Every structure is written in structure tokens, then in C-alpha cells.
Amino acid sequence: MSEQVSFTLRGRNPDVLTCIANLSNDEVFTPPELANRMLDKLAQSWAADHAGADLWANQSVKFLDPFTKSGVFLREITNRLVKGLADQIPDLQERVNHVLTKQVFGIGITRLTSFLARRSLYCTKRANGPHSVGKGFADESGNIWFERTEHTWVTGKCSYCGASKEAMDRGTDLETHAYAFIHTDNIKTRMAELFGDDMQFDVIVGNPPYQLNDGGYGTSAAPIYQLFVDQAKQLEPRYLSMIIPARWFAGGKGLDEFRESMLADDRLRSIDDYLSASDVFPGVGLKGGVCYFLWNRDHRGGVKLYVKRVFTHFKDWPVSTVTRPLQEDGADVFIRFNEGLSILKKVIAKEGEESTSLVLPVKKRFDVLVSSLRPFGFRTFFRGRKTKKNDDVTIYQNGGTAFVQRAEVETGVELIDSWKIYIGRAAPGTGNRDTYPHRILSTPFIGEPGSICSETYLCIGPFDTKAEAENALSYLTCRLTRLLILLHKPSQDTTRKVYTFVPKQDWARPWTDADLYAKYGITQTEIDFIEKVVRPMDVTADLLGDVAVDGSDDE
User: Fold this and answer.
1) Looking at 17-31, 102-116, 144-158, 483-497, which range is the least confident one?
2) In the 3-class helix/strand/coil scheme, how is 478-495 assigned residue by residue?
């Protein structure tokens, strides 16, 4: 075999897999650069656990990408093994054959991507063809398996992945997107059927599909990446590394149980958190960012092992690295910003009388003032009358104001005649790129007595006077306040839960950031961080630029 086989050719520009990774899709393709970062961290962990041994010089380690698309992980693993095993297996063809037939395995998520993965790995879609760089395969699939899998419909939903029958039962001409790895009751038995009874994978690595249409309103989609993570753990590899959306940090929309299990898993070794998905997936919009984690089956055994390495990445900012628990005492979410955690602890200590738990006393909780969704019972698509009649109240709705009979209001009636604040339940302005600094919240505004709102907004109150409402409004515009909201906010949705870490203040006075910084002892370094993350808010100017957003992402 010539030294010109694909595994020895690097540095070609452009890399086709880099080009593919720029495509926007729910099944996001992984750029080679990101795949290699993950593999670098995996190799470092292996060396730390094996007296400095080189993972890529081990000819017995077996790798699996159970949701391969472009084949980038398999290709890059193979490149590393072919180089690392040169001393042990000097003949290049023999070395390539060994790696491809005995060490590297994949499961295609669609027929097309299985062809693409084989092309990336074997340089042909037929592993046993004359142009394949690997020799000795019995069939054209090689070690990249794919067979069409069907959903199992129960009352209009797939019992395995939750896909909508209406959306995904599309006949035999289209892909089912019923991924084999999660459509089974026993993943170990399924892997034995595919790769043999004695197959035990040492490393599972990859980038699973993120979501499927769940048949909800508008563009509603349910996350499924957590199902792949759970299945992979069931296979008990030595190491597991996946890149997934970071929205699980705060749970919601079917992710609460997954969040709890991940934060309590002492086998989780590190998390690399990317605040903006576009930093690793150019051209792809994924609000809330992404992360990849490293899980070590044998990394367990005591309280100290709950302390993990957390790396925060954002554009050209220095990488923030902290060793800390993933779940702080009293917190029901993963506190995303390393710098933000120290600020939050100062706020809680002040308001909670030096408590070590990240729980505000009930009397100090701002979230008790925040309504649930549909504070007055009216949906986003409700439209009131354009003209006012006797005993009408004003309704702030998607697109402006209108009028509705007071008697039609059945929920939140105690708030109608009080002063309050309205704030959009979705936060415009962050975009799919998650650019910083940004506002965190849509612009709040005063709700006068005799007014209500649709579910486009949440209602904050009641307040006894207009002055109190205005002072609370000034508090919401403060950068520190909005940072505390961001620490509990995984997406554009700003439900009552995102105010969990926000304390009440004295509404007899207006508030500025200078006031809050002094009250909580915020240092200049911490102020610099806050101002790097949170944009100033001008209530008048920003309100003019806000766009009402529908509530299709209902949780």
C-alpha cells in the first residue's frame, strides 16, 4: 500500500467534512477541529489513568461512534491509530487493516450518512470494494452498520424516541429517523447482534441527533440526545465523550430527569462548555450553546470525585477553568459561568444570612412576584377587540394592545386593578449566535391598573403604587439582576423559574448597578465580567426594538 493513502494526507484545504459541518440541520455535523479537541482530551485522560500510556499506541482498544454522520470521529481516530501503532505494526497496509477491522466501529443514523461515513473512513462507500483502503471485510458495510429501523407507534407517538407519528410516519421512500441505537429495549443485546457477542467497546464518542418533531404547536421539537447518552452508559465503556446542546444544564422540556442524573453522576470527569454554538458549529444556530463531556466508568468512589473540571469557552475570551461540584448545594441547575458562581454566592450569603446553600429565604425570593405562563388565561394567539366598551380592560397581546371584557378574565383577577410589570416570556435579541453582551430579558414595562396580558408576557407584581412598580422596573434593568437570571436561563424562554436566584429588594427606592455592587461587595474583576456578559438596558429605547415572540416553545 502506498504512503499516499488518505490517512497520511493531512492539511488539504478545504476539508470536505469541514464544509459539511457548516450545514444547518437538527443532526449537526461535527467539524474535524472539534472532533480532535474531544479526542485530545480523551487521550489525556487515558494517559492520566494508565501511567502515561499512549491511547493511540494500543492495538486492543475498541472505539464506537453509535451515531456517525460524516464519519469524522472514525476518520480522526483511525488517523491517530495508524500513526500510533507504526512501531508495533510496521507494515502500513497491515496496520490500516488491523485498525479498520478490529478497532474502529460505527452505526450510521441514515442510509446516506452511512455511505458518507464509509467514504470518509474507507475512501469508498463499499468497504469490501477494490478501492477500499481496508482489506479483509466480508461485506460492503465493513464496520459501519446501517439498516432501516421503524418507529414503534403508541397513541400517535414512538414509544422509544417520542417522535410524532403524524410527522414521521412517511412511508418507505423517506428516512424514518428511527435511530437504531435508541430503538431497543436492551442495548447490550442489540450491540451483540450487530458486532458479535464478545464485543466490548472501550471508548464511545460522537455527536448524537439533537431533536425530533414531537407533534406540538408550531415548530415544537423534543430533545432526544439524552436518550443516546443514557444508552451509551448502559454499554459500560471505559470512556464516553459526546457533544450535546447545553440546555440540559437547567432542564425543562423532558430534560429534568437527565439533568439530575448527569449532575449526580460521579463518573462525569469534565465538561467543556461553549456559550455560543457557532464557535464550534459555524453557521449553525443552537440557542443556549453546546458542551461536550468526558465520562469515565472507573472514576468513582467518594465525595471528592463529585468535583469536576469545568471549562468555559467563548470566542477569543480566555478559557475559564475551575474545579468544582457540578451541583452546588441548594441549586437545581448547573451554574454555567464559573465567574458567575462566585457572584451568586455573594448575593445568597448576603440575603440568606451567610447560608452555604444557594437557596434564597422565601421572604427574599423575587420569583414569588412572577406569574406562571398565561397569567390571565389568554393564549398568545388570542386577539381582543380594537374598540373599547364599557367594563373593558386593556390587554397587552402579541403585536400591540386591544380590549376584552373584565368578566372574561377568569385567572389572575386579583392583579387586574394593581400596578405591575409586564415582560416578554421570550427574550429577543440573543439570536442563534448567542452573542454577548446581550440583554438576557425582553424589555419590561409598567402595567397600569385595569390592564392584563396574553401569554406573550409574564406579569410581575402586584405593587401598591406606581412608584414601587417603577423602582422594581429599575431593578430589572440592572446588569447584576439580569446576570442572576442568566445563571438559571438555558434558552430564550424566561419562565418564572429563571428568577430563582434573584432576591427581592426594597421597592421604596430606585436601584442602579452601583447600588447593587456596593450592597453585595462585587469586585472590579467581577464587575468587568458582568459588563462583558450583560448589555446595558435602556427601557425606552430597547422597548421600541423589541419584537413579540409567539409561545410555541412551551414547556
Assistant:
1) 17-31
2) CHHHHHHHHCCCCCCECC
Could you give the dihedral angle defined by the CA atoms of residues 448, 453, 457 and 462, in that order, rounded to the nearest 10 degrees? Answer: 40
pTM of the model: 0.83
Q: Are residues 257 and 165 in the same domain?
A: yes
CA 425/CA 198 separation, integer angstroms: 52
Dist. CA 221–CA 223, nearest whole Å: 7
Tell me, yes or no, whether 451 and 323 share the same domain.
no
Q: For the stretch 330-348, what's the b/e string if a residue is b when 16 or more beta carbons lie within 10 angstroms of its beta carbon?
A: ebbbbbbbbbbbbbbebbb
> What are the tens digits of pLDDT across the range 102-141?
999 999 988 888 999 999 999 998 999 999 999 989 899 9
CA distance 389 to 372: 28
For residue 48, tell me if it sits in a domain.
yes
98: CATH: 3.40.50.150
Q: Is residue 151 a part of any domain in this protein?
A: yes
Whether residue 96 sits in one domain with residue 40: yes
Query: Cα–Cα distances in Å, from 453 out to 387, 400, 412, 444, 550?
Result: 17, 10, 10, 13, 13
| Domain annotation covers residue 552 | no
Domain match, 430 and 320 both: no
* Residue 445 confidence (pLDDT) above 80: yes
The C-alpha angle with vertex 299 and arms to 296 and 300, in degrees rounded to 5, equals 130
Residue 345 lies in a domain: no
Residue 402: give the domain boundaries: 364-545
The 10s digit of each residue's pLDDT in 231-263 is 999 999 999 999 999 989 888 778 889 998 998
End-to-end CA distance of the chain: give it in Å, rounded: 56
Q: Residue 248 carries which DSSP code?
A: G
* Position with higher pLDDT, 204 vs 165: 204
- Number of domains forming the structure of the chain: 2
